[in-house]
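Record 1 of the preview.
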Amino acid sequence: MVFDSLPELITTVQVLVSRIQWLIGGFFGLYLFYYIFSYFSQRKTVHLLEDIRDQLNELNKHLRNK
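->
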């Protein structure tokens, strides 16, 4: 009696678990993509700010010598 519906229950649970795994994997993938994009974007910003700092230092040196 109870064991007659067990295969149907197992199939339903397997489908549900596979969909949950897909959702969790999708969110993790999006988070990983965002983290990588963020890292490279911040690196570009840091390099830009360092270049600006160097240019300002050179300009200050030039203006002090006048």
